[in-house]
Design brief:
Layout: H1 8-28, H2 34-45, E1 50-52, H3 53-60, H4 64-76, E2 80-84, E3 92-96, H5 98-119, H6 124-142
Antiparallel strand pairs: 1-3, 2-3
């Protein structure tokens, strides 16, 4: 069955599924979902490792209650902390904790290893060309 020639869209989907499965297995060891991990990464990349809950809601394109629920579950796991804005008590901020950052970096290492394995069969110039072509494809469907 593996020798079957798949079309490009099917190959991209199959590659994504394998990578996602690998990452999800790593996340399971920490009791995290991919959505929770994405929030940790977003906080890690935010100035001061902190973001307003309203900004997270907009960034992820979810309802306020959904963003609050994700943050709340991460807070119960002690991976984030939340606090009210000093100037406006109605505004809630979320900050990644040291433990959340540690997990974020550990999972990132796993993602890097997976990506290295994924491209290990390519020469550097082939990997660069693939990246260029994938960006071109992405730009064509992004609009």
């Amino acid at each position: 069955m593996e020798s079957k020639q798949f079309r490009n869209g099917e190959l991209i989907k199959r590659i994504n599924d394998k990578v996602e499965k690998t990452v999800n297995n790593k996340l399971l060891t920490y009791g995290l979902t991919s959505t929770q991990f994405k929030m940790l990464v977003t906080l890690h990349l935010s100035p001061g490792n902190t973001a307003a809950l309203k900004d997270l809601e907009k960034y992820f394109g979810v309802a306020q209650s959904t963003a609050a629920g994700i943050a709340s579950r991460l807070e119960k796991k002690k991976l984030v902390s939340s606090f009210s804005d000093a100037n406006d008590k109605r505004v809630k901020h979320v900050r990644i904790t040291d433990e959340g950052l540690r997990i974020c970096l550990n999972v990132r290492e796993s993602i890097i290893e997976t990506e290295h394995k994924l491209f290990s069969g390519l020469m550097p110039e082939e990997e660069a060309e693939l990246n260029r072509l994938l960006h071109k494809v992405y730009r064509s469907i992004k609009s």
